[in-house]
Amino acid sequence: MTNPHGSWIWYELMTPDAQASRAFYEGVIGWRIDAQSMAPGGAEYRILHAPDGDIGGMLTLDAAMLAGGAKAGWLGYIGVEDVDASVAQLMAAGGSVHVPPTDIPGVGRFAMVADPQGVVFYVMRGFSAESSTAYARFGEGHVSWNELQTSDADAGFVFYSNVFGWERAGGMPMPWGEYSFLRCKDAGDAMDSVWGAMMPREKLEHPVGWTYYFRVPDIEAAHATVKELGGTPQSDPMEVPGGDRVFHATDPQGALFGLVAPK
Q1: Would you list the DSSP string of the chain?
Q2: For a designed S-S bond to 206, which of 11, 30, 142, 201 qualifies (C-beta 3.0 to 4.6 A apart)?
Q3: pLDDT digit string, tens, across residues 212-256
Q4: Which of 1-5, 39-43, 63-67 has the lowest mean pLDDT?
């Protein structure tokens, strides 16, 4: 893995119904999703293929996972130079570990962790010599933006900055707090180095977490397709700075995601 430390390198959908999720996301985003699991053994894991490369995977939640409290949702993987060292560092910074550092033969070493505010994500060091292109700002079918809503934005930034070297790259005021743009350390001053943002959650009852925005060619068509295929848009499409249009939605299994397209 040649992506810099602190880069987003993979995205994962956890779902209790793989075939229903496959039909939904292929229809809404245009991915090709494997019909059969590619994972050896008992776990069911399918790869999400964008037109020009793989962007993530789909993990089927089995009965034991569901009984243990697992729910449908999207998680992201942050690439690190050393998984064990990063896990130790994030624990010292107030984070927690859900799955300890573990090897996936031929794939990489990973751990499932959470920040001090309880937001869950993965850290990973891939074994491949190729760079991940799962995040691509303007790549159709790729993640185009990574956005964190948190219960303590100041403490959250300190955590992510210390562990992953992230930097603020400006921001804009929102009624409920600053929307701070984020980039990796030493990425330069250009706005195209910005890959996402963080902000306080708008309301206390809102859950904390990362939301990942997938790029589609037509936001109105995607909005209609989400509804047609059983998902629930959280709003109408709206324009954001830079000219793109976005909206949040939940899929039929309840996983939250975002869609983005040119104006």
Answers
A1: --SPTT-EEEEEEEES-HHHHHHHHHHHT--EE-SS--SSSS--EEEEEETTEEEEEEEEP-HHHHHTT--SEEEEEEE-S-HHHHHHHHHHTT-EEEEEEEEETTTEEEEEEE-TT--EEEEEEE--SSPP-SB-TT-TTSEEEEEEEES-HHHHHHHHHHHH--EEEEEEEETTEEEEEEE-TT--SSGGG--EEEEE-SSTTSPPEEEEEEE-S-HHHHHHHHHHTT-EESS--EE-TTS-EEEEEE-TT--EEEEEE--
A2: 201
A3: 999 999 999 999 999 999 999 999 999 998 889 999 999 999 999
A4: 39-43
